[in-house]
Amino acid sequence: MPRLLIATNNAGKVAEFRRLLDGCGWELTTPADLDLRLEVDEDGETYEANARKKALEFARASGLVTLADDSGIEIQAMDGEPGVRSARFLGPDASYPERFAEIHGRLADLPREQWLARFVCVIAVADHTTGTVRTAEGEVRGMIAAEPRGGGGFGYDPIFWLPQHSRTMAELPEREKDIISHRGRAVAPARQILRELLHDHREADSPYNQPPA
Questions:
Q1: pLDDT score of 208
Q2: Cα distances (angstroms) measured from residue 132 to each of 58, 59, 207
Q3: Separation of alpha carbons 98 and 79, rounded Å
Q4: Alpha helix positions (H), the chain
Q5: What are the residue ranges in the chain where pLDDT is below 50?
Q6: pLDDT at 18
Q7: What was the pLDDT predicted at 206?
Q8: Which one of the listed residues 69, 70, 127, 157 is annotated catalytic?
Q9: Which residues, 6+ apart, have CB-to-CB distance to 26 below 8 Å?
Q10: What is the predicted pLDDT for the residue at 12?
């Protein structure tokens, strides 16, 4: 079974991708599994730019087909912030409780109906053999919760309120979250990309496609 590198050291993301990509036909591996130490500067202005950059750099370093993502939370009343800088909001060393407090402070004087937000995820799949990168995107819309709730998920999940579920993302069971989350919605088209790449790589490895000796 060919290997697919999941280009992240975020344990929460790794766990989600292992669930979401179960049965995709690829053996999933991580930088930690390969003892691959690579830091990619996520300096792009869009999720797609960052996801593409990570996927390509990890693919070149590992010699494996690589999947990377970039994601963030966008808050309408904050003009889309933190957005593409969600993981660095208030600085890379800020805690999520500190980030939650900052967000609630900025929204405090606004009526609750204006606390609209969305999660966005862009997945990039890079093929090391050709240098090509294909992308898939997913989003989920909701609101900022009045207070953090739930012990599941990671990142901003405890303050992302889903009105149709009357729960935060962090309160959802894993199976339910995987269906409706921005990452889950991006993985659905990404699985098709992986199926096509799997076919291409199997064709390339076929003895019928080798030049005669």
A1: 40
A2: 13, 10, 24
A3: 20
A4: 11-20, 31-34, 47-62, 96-107, 174-180, 182-205
A5: 206-209
A6: 96
A7: 41
A8: 70
A9: 1, 2, 3, 4, 65, 194, 198
A10: 87
Q: Do residues 1 and 65 touch, judged by C-beta distance below 8 A?
A: no
Distance (Å, rounded) from C-alpha 148 to C-alpha 168? 8
**All residues at 6 or more sequence positions from 82 whose CB lies less than 8 Å from its CB, including other chains:** 72, 73, 74, 75, 88, 89, 99
Summarised one tens digit per residue, pLDDT across range 71-106 is 999 999 999 999 999 999 999 899 999 999 999 999
3-state secondary structure of 150: coil
Answer yes or no: 127 catalytic.
no
Around Cβ 62, how many Cβ atoms within 10 Å?
Answer: 18
Look at residue 112 in the predicted model and tell me its pLDDT. Answer: 95
Please give the order of strands across the beta sheet that includes 160-162.
27-29, 3-6, 65-75, 116-127, 132-144, 160-162, 167-168
Angle, in degrees to the nearest 10, between helices 182-205 and 11-20: 70
Q: What residues contact 79, with CB distance under 8 A and at least 6 apart?
A: none
pLDDT of residue 67: 98
